[in-house]
Amino acid sequence: MIDFNYFAKIDIRVGTIIEAENFKEAIKPAYKLKINFGDEVGIKQTSAQITENYQLKELIGKQVIAVVNFPKKQIANFMSEVLVLGVYSSTGVVLLSPLEKVSNGSKIG
């Protein structure tokens, strides 16, 4: 069990994927994503191992949920700035998304 104050420090927001490309240098199959989190957070990049369930062209315009206040993480030759959230399933990772379109940068909580 954690104290609620620890959870409250996690900044989880909605963003829209604006670019997606293959991450050829990654050890495991992955995509590089650019996500627009609105004016306050801006555009951030990340990598995601979601190739089993998603094609590049279907990701553009998709809203996703991500942690935006973790430290940057070097993955191969790429700097990941946010952690996109997903659920592990028998077919691979399924991204968490709002059921309805919401404003980029909307906070989860």
What does this structure look like?
The chain is mainly beta and 109 residues long. It has a single domain (10-95), classed as OB fold (Dihydrolipoamide Acetyltransferase, E2P), CATH 2.40.50. Helices cover 12% and strands 40% of the residues. The strands form three sheets. Strands 3-2-1-4-7 form a five-stranded antiparallel sheet. A hairpin with an 8-residue loop joins strand 1 (12-22) and strand 2 (31-36). The longest helix has 5 residues, at 4-8. It is globular. The model has no long low-confidence stretch (mean pLDDT 96).
Provide a brief overview of the structure.
With 109 residues, the protein is mainly beta.
Question: Which properties best describe this structure?
Answer:
single chain, five-stranded antiparallel β-sheet, two-stranded antiparallel ribbon, 109 residues, 12% helix, mainly beta, OB fold (Dihydrolipoamide Acetyltransferase, E2P)
